[in-house]
Design goal:
The complex is a heterodimer of chains A (about 110) and B (about 900). In chain A, about 60% of the residues lie in helices and about 10% in strands. Chain A has about 110 residues and is mainly α. Chain A has one domain (about 10-110): Winged helix-like DNA-binding domain superfamily/Winged helix DNA-binding domain (Arc Repressor Mutant, subunit A). Chain A is elongated. Chain A starts with 7 loop residues before the first helix and ends with a helix. The mean pLDDT of chain A is about 85. Chain B is about 50% helix and about 15% strand. In chain B, strand 16 (about 590-595) and strand 17 form a beta hairpin. Chain B is globular, with a radius of gyration of 39 Å. The model of chain B has no long low-confidence stretch (mean pLDDT about 85). Classes of the chains: A mainly alpha (about 110), B alpha+beta (about 900). At the A-B interface, helix 3 of A face helix 2 and helix 3 of B.
Chain lengths: ~110, ~900
C-alpha cells in the first residue's frame, strides 16, 4: 500500500468528518472543530484541505437538498471513503505503536 | 436592515472560484453571514464575509487559468440545422419553388432598379471640380412682363457668349469659365468622305481644366487654344481614321476650314448631362463670327464656370443683377436676367429650359424605387404567408425538439437558417437573372451593367447583407411564431394554428392585393395617357412626311424654289416645302410688337417659325382669318406676318378677324399682320400650344419636307437620294420621317411606360404565385371539411362559394383601399402633361375584372379540384 502521510490538519479534518458522520458539510465541520479543539479555522483553509482529501480519495461528497437559507445554495456533505478510513486507522496505529514504545521513566520524569 | 452579503465581494468570489466548488462554498459563506446577522453584528458579518472571501482565494480553489475548452457542439448543431433545412426544402419542392422564384424575381428587379437609380444619381459625379462648378442661366424678358423676375422654368441654360468673360472679369471668386455651343449639324470632310456631324461642338480651351474629361493624347492646356484645332473622341477618331493615329491629321470643317487634330480624348461617359463627339476650338468660331462674342442678345452658348477654392457661390449671387444691368444698360424694352446653378445634381434637379442634353427625373427615380420596394415586400409577404400557413406541418417537429431540450433561441436559429438558405438560393437565382438580362436591358433602358459591376467585393458584400436582411425580414415572424409553440399542446394533438396568424395572413394578402391593384391601375393609366398623346389631334398632318436637311446651306437657299420643283417631280412625292424647322424641333422666341385692340403697341416674345408659302397647305394647317403668304406678293417676305390663334389671344384679340391689318415690328421687319392660323402643336403635347408667329424668310431655310405616298417607300427614298446627289453633290443626303422624329419626344415617356409595365407584370406575377401557394395549402387543410359537406349533399357550386367567400371579402377591401390611393397618385403624374387623358372609369372596372379573374382563377383551380374529388379519398384515412 502506497505510503501517504497525513498532515496534522488533514488528520483533524478527517476525524471531524468521521465524527459528524452524515452531517459533515463546510460550516458544520468548522463549528465542530472550533468547539472541540478551541481552534479557529477559516473557510478557505478548510475547503482547500477538503478538496485535496477528496482528490486523494479519502473523502467523497454529494450535494444535499436546497433550502431557503444559505442564499438557496445546496450543502455539500462529505463522508469518509473506505480508503480514508484505512489511512486514518493506519495513522492511529502508527501513533499507538509510537506511544507504546515510550519507556515508562521517560514519561514520568 | 440589509442582510445581503456585500455584492462586490460576492461577485469577486464568483469570478475566481472554481465552478465545481462555487455552489456549496457560496452556501457556506451565506450561512456564516446569516448567522452573524442573527446575532445582530451586521458590521462584523460583512467584515468576516470579506475576510473569508479573501482567504478562500487559494490555488486549490480558484478556477484554472487556462480554462479547459468546453466541448462545444455549436458547429455540429449548425450543420444539422442546414441539413434539416435542406431536407425540408427538398421535401416541399412546390412551396420552396414558389418561395425561391418569387423572392428571386423580386430581388432581380430590386437589383436592376438599384442599378438604374444609382446610374441616374451618378450623373456628372466624375468631375473632380464638381463641387465648385456652376452653370450660368439666362433669361430675357420684354414688354409688359419685363420688370417681373423670371420663374425658374423661364431661365435657360442656352445663353450669350460675353457673359462668361464678364463673370471672370467682375468676380474675383471665379476661377475659370468654359463655353460650349450646341452640336448643330456640321459638315465635316475627312479625305474624300463627307459626314454630317450632329454632335461636334465648339468649346473653350479651358474645357479640360473645368471638366475632368480625359485626354489620351495632346496637351490639355493648349489643345484647343489656337483657331482651327479640333479634339476628337476616341470613337470619332476611329470613325474618321480607323486604326491610324489621328493626331496631327487634318479634318475639314464647313468645306473651307482645315482643322488640325490636336488631341484625342476618351469618349464622354454616358452618365454625363452633356455629351459630344468632338470639340472644335472656340477660337475657330470666333474667327468665323467675331461680333457675336460681344452681343449680349445673341444666344448660342452654354456657359460653365468654376469657383476658386474657399470661395462661396453665395458671395456672387447678390451681384448678378448688377452685372446684368451693367452690360445691358442700352437695352430698351427688354431686360436681361442671370442666375447660376450648381452642376452637381443639375441633371436631376434643373428646371431651366434649353438643356444641353438629356435630363433625369427625380419623380421617375422615386417611382421606380417605390416599385422595387413593393416587389421585395410582395415577395417577402409570400414567404411569411406560406411559412406561417404551413406552420402546422412542423408543429410536431417543434414539439419533439422542445421536449428533447431545444431552447427557444435555438429553434429560432434553426428556422432562420432555413430561411437564410432559401433567401440565398433566391439571391443566386437573381444574380443569374441579372447577368442574363443585362444585355437586353442595355438596349431597352440604356443601362449598362457589366459583369464586373456584379462580381466585385462591394457589390457582393452589400448583396449578402441584403440577402441577410431579406431572410431576417421574411423569416423572423415565422421563426418566432413557430418557436413559441407549446410542446404539450402540440404533441397531444389539440393544437390549432392561432387566430392571430390567420388575421395576419389576411392582412398581408390584402396588402399584396392593394399593391397589385395600384400597379395595374398605374400601368393602365400610363398606357392610356401615351395613347391619348399620340393620337391627339395635333392641328397638322405629320404622317408620311420625309424631312431632308441641308443645314442653312446658302447655295441651296438661293435656288430653293427650283430644287423644290425638282424633288416634286420625283415619283411618289406629292408635294415639297421648305422651312427652318419642322414641328417637334426647337423654335426660338423673338421680341415682337403688335398693335393691340386699343391701338397701342404691345410687346411680347412669342416663338417664331420661318416658313415658305407652301407650308400651310403642305401640313394642312387651317387659316382662320386673313390669308396665307403668297409668292406673287414680293412684300410678303418683308412686311407680312402670320400669327396663330394663341398669339392673337395674347394680344387681346378674341376674334381672329380683328387682328388682320394691325401693325407689327419684329426682328428688323415692320408691316401688317396678314393672317391668323389655327393653333397647331408645333412642340409636343407636354405643353399647351404657345403663341407663334410665322414669317416668310427664303434665306433662313434648313429643311425640305416631302410628302410621300406609303407605297414603295424604299424606292421613293432611293429616287430622292439620286436626285439629291445630282442636284446637291456637296452635301450628304440625310433624311428622317417627321412622325418618327416627332414621337421621339415621347420616347422617355414610352421608356418609362414600358419599364413600369414590365415591373408591374412581374410584381403581379409574384403576388399571384404567392396566392396560388397559399390557396393550395388552405384548400388542402379543408379537404376533409369538403368531403363531409359533399357526403351530406352539398353541391359543387355551394362548395366553391364557400371557398371563395373569404377571398371576395379581401378583394373588396383591397379595392376600397387601392382605388383612392392610385387615383391620387396617377392624378399627380398626369399633372406633368398639358393634355391629359381623362381618368376613365373603365380603367378601374377593367382592373377590377382582371384582378378578380386572376385571383379567382388562381384559387378556383385548387377549389374545383378539391370540390370534384371523391369524398371517399379524403375521408377514408383518419
Amino acid at each position: 500500500m502506497g505510503k501517504y502521510h497525513l498532515g496534522e490538519f488533514e488528520e483533524i479534518v478527517l476525524l471531524t468528518v468521521a465524527i459528524l458522520k452524515n452531517e459533515a458539510y463546510g460550516i458544520a465541520i468548522i463549528d465542530e472543530m472550533e468547539s472541540r479543539l478551541k481552534r479557529s479555522v477559516s473557510i478557505g483553509a478548510l475547503q482547500t484541505v477538503l478538496r485535496r482529501l477528496e482528490k486523494k480519495g479519502f473523502l467523497s461528497s454529494e450535494f444535499g437538498e436546497a433550502t431557503k437559507v444559505r442564499g438557496g445554495k445546496r450543502k455539500r456533505y462529505f463522508s469518509l471513503t473506505a480508503y480514508g478510513k484505512k489511512v486514518l486507522t493506519e495513522t492511529k496505529e502508527q501513533r499507538m505503536g509510537l506511544w507504546n514504545a515510550i519507556p515508562e521513566f521517560a514519561f514520568s520524569s | 436592515m440589509n442582510n445581503q452579503p456585500p455584492k462586490l465581494w460576492l461577485r469577486f468570489f464568483r469570478w475566481y472560484c472554481h465552478p465545481d466548488y462555487a455552489e456549496d462554498i457560496e452556501g457556506d459563506l451565506f450561512e456564516r453571514f446569516e448567522r452573524q446577522i442573527e446575532l445582530g453584528n451586521t458590521g462584523s458579518a460583512e467584515w468576516r464575509f470579506a475576510s473569508d472571501v479573501v482567504r478562500l482565494f487559494r490555488p486549490g480553489l480558484i478556477r484554472p487559468l487556462t480554462q479547459k475548452k468546453q466541448q462545444q457542439n455549436q458547429f455540429d448543431m449548425f450543420k444539422n440545422y442546414y441539413k434539416v433545412a435542406w431536407r425540408h426544402i427538398l421535401k416541399e419542392k412546390f412551396y420552396s419553388f414558389i418561395n425561391v422564384t418569387g423572392l428571386g424575381v423580386g430581388l432581380t428587379c430590386c437589383i436592376l432598379i438599384a442599378f438604374f437609380v444609382m446610374n441616374e444619381l451618378s450623373y456628372d459625379n466624375y468631375h473632380e471640380k464638381l463641387d465648385r462648378t456652376y452653370r450660368i442661366l439666362q433669361a430675357y424678358k420684354s414688354g409688359a412682363e419685363m420688370a417681373t423676375a423670371p420663374a425658374a422654368e423661364e431661365y435657360q441654360v442656352w445663353g450669350n457668349a460675353p457673359v462668361g468673360p464678364a463673370f471672370k472679369e467682375e468676380f474675383p471668386e471665379v476661377d475659370q469659365f468654359c463655353r460650349f455651343t450646341p452640336g448643330h449639324s456640321k459638315l465635316i470632310k475627312v479625305g474624300d468622305e463627307l459626314y454630317d456631324e450632329k454632335n461636334i461642338v465648339f468649346g473653350d480651351s479651358t474645357v479640360f481644366d473645368v471638366f475632368s474629361w480625359e485626354l489620351i493624347s495632346g496637351n490639355p492646356k493648349s489643345a484647343l487654344a489656337a483657331p482651327n484645332s479640333i479634339v476628337l473622341t476616341e470613337s470619332l477618331a476611329k470613325k474618321y481614321f480607323g486604326e491610324d493615329n489621328a493626331m496631327g491629321q487634318i479634318v475639314t470643317y464647313n468645306k473651307n476650314r482645315d482643322c488640325l487634330v490636336t488631341g484625342i480624348m476618351k469618349d464622354v461617359p454616358s452618365n454625363s448631362h452633356f455629351t459630344f463627339d468632338g470639340i472644335i476650338s472656340m477660337a475657330t468660331f470666333y474667327d468665323q463670327r467675331p461680333p457675336i462674342f460681344d452681343w449680349w442678345g445673341y444666344v448660342d452658348f452654354y456657359t460653365y464656370f468654376t469657383l476658386k477654392d474657399n470661395t462661396r457661390i453665395e458671395d456672387i449671387k447678390p451681384k448678378l443683377d448688377d452685372l446684368a444691368a451693367k452690360y445691358t444698360a442700352d437695352w430698351e424694352d427688354s431686360k436681361f436676367y442671370i442666375d447660376v446653378e450648381p452642376l452637381k445634381g443639375a441633371y436631376l434637379n434643373s428646371t431651366a429650359a434649353r438643356q444641353p442634353g438629356k435630363t433625369g427625373s427625380i419623380s421617375n427615380i422615386t417611382i421606380f424605387a417605390v416599385i422595387g420596394v413593393f416587389m421585395l415586400l410582395i415577395a417577402c409577404i409570400n414567404f411569411i404567408n406560406l411559412s406561417t400557413a404551413r406552420s402546422l406541418e412542423r408543429a410536431k417537429e417543434i414539439g419533439i425538439r422542445k421536449v428533447v431540450g431545444a431552447r427557444k433561441s435555438s429553434l429560432i436559429n434553426q428556422y432562420l437558417s432555413e430561411f437564410f438558405l432559401l433567401a440565398l438560393f433566391a439571391g443566386l437565382l437573381s444574380l443569374a437573372l441579372v447577368i442574363f438580362l443585362a444585355p437586353y436591358l442595355k438596349d431597352f433602358a440604356g443601362l449598362s451593367i457589366e459583369p464586373s459591376d456584379i462580381l466585385n467585393i462591394e457589390f457582393l458584400g452589400i448583396f449578402l447583407i441584403g440577402i441577410f436582411v431579406v431572410g431576417l425580414l421574411a423569416g423572423s415572424y415565422p421563426a418566432f411564431l413557430l418557436s413559441k409553440f407549446q410542446p404539450v399542446k402540440v404533441l397531444k394533438g389539440s393544437f390549432k394554428s392561432g387566430k392571430s396568424g390567420v388575421a395576419l395572413r389576411k392582412a398581408l394578402v390584402s396588402f399584396q392585393f392593394v399593391l397589385t391593384i395600384s400597379l395595374i391601375i398605374g400601368t393602365a393609366t400610363i398606357h392610356n395617357q401615351l395613347d391619348y398623346l399620340q393620337n391627339q389631334e395635333l392641328g397638322f398632318k405629320k404622317d408620311q412626311v420625309l424631312v431632308m436637311e441641308f443645314g442653312f446651306d446658302g447655295q441651296i437657299q438661293r435656288g430653293i424654289e427650283a430644287l423644290k420643283d425638282e424633288f416634286e417631280k420625283s415619283p411618289n412625292v406629292s408635294s415639297v416645302c421648305a422651312s427652318r424647322a419642322v414641328p417637334g424641333n426647337f423654335f426660338p422666341n423673338a421680341g415682337t410688337t403688335i398693335e393691340n385692340p386699343e391701338g397701342e403697341l404691345e410687346s411680347h416674345s412669342p416663338a417664331i417659325y420661318e416658313i415658305d408659302p407652301d407650308i400651310l397647305t403642305f401640313y394642312d394647317i387651317k387659316v382662320l382669318a386673313g390669308r396665307n403668304f403668297s409668292y406673287n406678293n414680293y412684300s410678303d417676305s418683308v412686311e407680312a406676318l402670320i400669327i396663330n390663334n394663341a398669339a392673337a389671344k395674347l394680344w387681346g384679340y378674341n376674334n381672329p378677324e380683328d387682328v388682320i391689318g394691325k401693325k407689327f415690328d419684329q426682328w428688323g421687319k415692320t408691316g401688317e399682320v396678314i393672317g391668323v392660323v389655327d393653333d397647331f402643336n408645333y412642340k409636343s403635347l407636354h405643353t399647351e400650344v404657345e403663341p407663334l408667329t410665322l414669317r416668310y424668310e427664303p434665306f433662313s431655310m434648313a429643311k425640305f419636307s416631302a410628302r410621300v405616298s406609303t407605297s414603295e417607300i424604299y424606292s421613293t427614298i432611293q429616287n430622292l437620294e439620286e436626285k439629291w446627289k445630282e442636284l446637291i453633290p456637296h452635301r450628304p443626303f440625310t433624311y428622317y420621317f417627321l412622325d418618327n422624329n416627332f414621337d421621339l419626344q415621347y420616347k422617355s415617356d414610352e421608356k418609362f411606360s414600358e419599364l413600369f409595365s414590365s415591373f408591374s407584370v412581374l410584381a403581379i406575377l409574384i403576388a399571384f404565385l404567392g396566392l396560388f401557394g397559399l390557396t393550395t395549402y388552405t384548400t388542402s387543410q379543408r379537404i376533409k371539411e369538403i368531403g363531409i359537406r359533399k357526403v351530406l349533399g352539398a353541391s359543387l357550386r355551394s362548395i366553391l362559394l364557400l371557398l371563395s367567400k373569404d377571398l371576395s371579402k379581401l378583394l373588396l377591401l383591397s379595392f376600397l383601399i387601392a382605388v383612392p390611393i392610385s387615383w391620387y397618385a396617377m392624378k399627380e403624374w398626369l399633372e406633368s402633361f398639358a393634355y391629359q387623358a381623362p381618368i376613365s372609369l373603365w380603367v378601374y372596372l377593367i382592373t377590377a375584372l382582371i384582378v378578380s379573374a386572376l385571383a379567382f382563377g388562381t384559387m378556383g383551380w385548387q377549389s374545383v379540384k378539391a370540390a370534384l374529388q371523391n369524398p371517399v379519398n379524403s375521408l377514408k384515412n383518419e
